[in-house]
Amino acid sequence: MDVQPGHCWRCEEKILPEHTVPCSRCPMAVYCSTLCRDKDSIRHSAMECEIYGDKKCSACDKLGKLLECSACNSAWYCNADCQRRDFPLHKTTCRGILTSIKQLSSKLFRLKGQYGDFPEYFGNTLARDFLQLDNNEWSGKSVEEKLELDRDYHVLSAGCGDLRSTVLTAASLPAEYQGKLHVTLNDRDPFVLARNVLFLFMLVRFADTDYISSSLTTIWYSLHISKKEYDLVKTSLDELIQMSAQQLSDATRGLVSVLNEELGYLGHVWRGWQSLECRRGNPASINLRQQRQEMFENSDQELKVERSVYLTCLNANDRKQMKKWFAHGLFLSCEANQRDIPFDNPTLTAQEASKRIAAYGCVQLLQISSEMPKYLISSKRMPFSVWDCLRVREHTPGSHTSPMVMYHKYVTNLLQKVKSLILQGRLLSYVSLANCLDFPNHHQALNMPSYDRIFTSNLADFHGFAKLLQIFKPLLNTNNSFSVIVTEIVGLYINVPTADPWKLPEPQFQKVISNYSRDWPTTKAEYHYIFEYYNSTPPFLQFLRADIMAGECGTPPLQDAPSFESVKKCQGMRMRDFRKELNKLVPLRCRLDVRNLSLVNVGCRAVEWLLPKTES
Ligand SMILES: C[S@@+](CC[C@H](N)C(=O)[O-])C[C@H]1O[C@@H](n2cnc3c(N)ncnc32)[C@H](O)[C@@H]1O
Ligand SMILES: [Zn+2]
Ligand SMILES: [Zn+2]
Ligand SMILES: [Zn+2]
Ligand SMILES: [Zn+2]
């Protein structure tokens, strides 16, 4: 359920077919070695084996491929006879589950529509490769057939946040691929899009230099920057502020287009950044370091505990270096002297969303006030959580003085590839500042092409699945059988108490703990990794049913809990059933314990939706 095909289910290294070691209980898991299989056995048998392996009949205990109780999805039977016989016993559990779905759906309804105050300058989920051609259009194809598929691809990233997934996608295109990648970036936060447009502009504007990739990595993440980097930002802002949308498009040879005449909003942001005093040590300076420290001091106790737990799970050197990062927030290509980085990074500042929101129903655009932008990166956000540390280590072999240097090198290498695509005119970005619910109108008005992929970030947490599928389905490219809408949520265990092992009744909790402590030394008894030993798929099924039941923004709520079978056909789409097959773009959920540096969000779940009656 977690791992992309062709990779070991423990270490996630790519494995060759002749080396695979299968799980003996289920048809899904494969390992690079018996060592990896054994290391994963306790976790995996408590988790995916339960989902993909044989089921036990609730009436007669027989094992096999059984029929599921369609009301609750949590009991299995040989046949109708066994089901009838078990009913008197099962009915309480079964009805209990339906009741909790109903309760959940009314609670979810109230949770929707809450907004975070922080602009997503770093993001909080792993960067996604939107295309993964080898796993989709190009899978099982010969070289000649692949070249026939060398057409352009169109991706919509709704609620896009920062550029990390665009960067990863562009940098992951197979070397043989010669087409163009068109990415539409939709977000309703002008700060986020102003930062994205600035970064894209910088890549194009300074593409002929060899330092722009490395400098941009620093500007993306580092609290302080060098004079050279500050000048790059300043020059770019000065130029951008003068431009109309047409001039921006011309200046970037059509590579960066801002849609629906929203450039004015971005201009406000750019002027705000331009007006900040960034020279450190200057009495009038914005002093980001102090602002960052204050923000952490004022954060809740839970975050402080999370940080100390995170540190205990690292090796000694990484721990030492990460402590430093928590203190100084520097993200540079090498260890640098403080004197060489004399500027605060203006692109890490913004205005709080709650102060900017002018809400009218579901349709809204954030306004910008005259207030000075201030440091506004949530203390929970780290560059280490958004770039999968397994991939970072894989692509930057050798030893590094710190995780920062390793990650810096990784992101720089990705940007280097993006830059070369840009030089070839093969990465085109269309920027749309709008509520995602309004985007389809703009799409239609501008007569834009349909999409091979629609990624919706975790907008499902705000708007519900049904609404997103309803509005985005008409935008999918019906000529491509691999066209897909990806929905994600990050708040599963917040919404559904039974998804959180820490909230389980004592006996169940003890069972999870005992699995966990058999696998891990008890001194490592950490909050985070326990989630790895608890199968939260049944609560997730309930969540999906409750979410569809709740409706949102014009999608009416339902009287009764929909069956999972009908959830799978929501809005006439076809859900890739994560209980039967693996996702092809985004794992349903990510392995945590092999990703210590990344501190992956435990509540993140991704679902893929296909057009009906298409091959996949
Ligand atoms: C959904 S948020 C959450 C963070 C996300 N998981 C990430 O890692 O980037 C991502 C982005 O969606 C944007 N967003 C939230 N609601 C939106 C809406 N209704 N329309 C468009 N963008 C929205 C936010 O401004 C934010 O930049
Ligand atoms: Zn392995
Ligand atoms: Zn198994
Ligand atoms: Zn039976
Ligand atoms: Zn049942």
Quick summary:
It comes from Patiria miniata (Bat star). The protein is α/β, with parallel strands linked by helices.
For the structure shown, list the relevant keywords:
616 residues, alpha/beta, eight-stranded mixed sheet, two-stranded antiparallel ribbon, 23 helices, 18 strands, globular, binds S-adenosylmethionine, binds zinc ion
Describe the structure.
- The protein is α/β, with parallel strands linked by helices and 616 residues long.
- Among the domains are: 17-84, no CATH class; 133-449, no CATH class.
- Helices cover 40% and strands 10% of the residues.
- A hairpin with a 7-residue loop joins strand 5 and strand 6 (76-77).
- The longest helix is centred in the N-terminal third of the chain and has 32 residues, at 80-111.
- It is globular.
- It starts with 20 loop residues before the first strand and ends in a 6-residue tail after the last strand.
- Bound molecules: S-adenosylmethionine (SAM) and zinc ion (4 copies).
- Residues 23, 25-26, 29, 44, 48-49, 53 line the site of one zinc ion.
- One zinc ion binds at residues 69, 71-72, 75, 90, 94.
Structural class: alpha/beta
Instruction: Give the helix proportion (percent range).
Output: 40-55%
* Small-molecule binders: S-adenosylmethionine, zinc ion
* Contiguous runs where pLDDT drops below 50 for at least 5 residues: 359-364
Specify the biggest β-sheet. Answer: 8 strands, mixed
Distance between the termini: 17 Å
Helix segment count?
Answer: 23
Query: Residue-averaged pLDDT, rounded?
Result: 91
Query: Radius of gyration over alpha carbons?
Result: 25 Å
Strand order of the largest sheet: 10-14-8-7-15-16-18-17
Total E-strand runs: 18
* Principal-axes shape call: globular
Strand residue percentage: 5-15%
Domain MYND-type: 57-94
Keywords: DNA-binding, Metal-binding, Nucleus, Transcription, Transcription regulation, Zinc, Zinc-finger
InterPro entries: DUF4470, TF_DEAF-1, Znf_MYND
GO molecular function: DNA binding; DNA-binding transcription factor activity, RNA polymerase II-specific; zinc ion binding
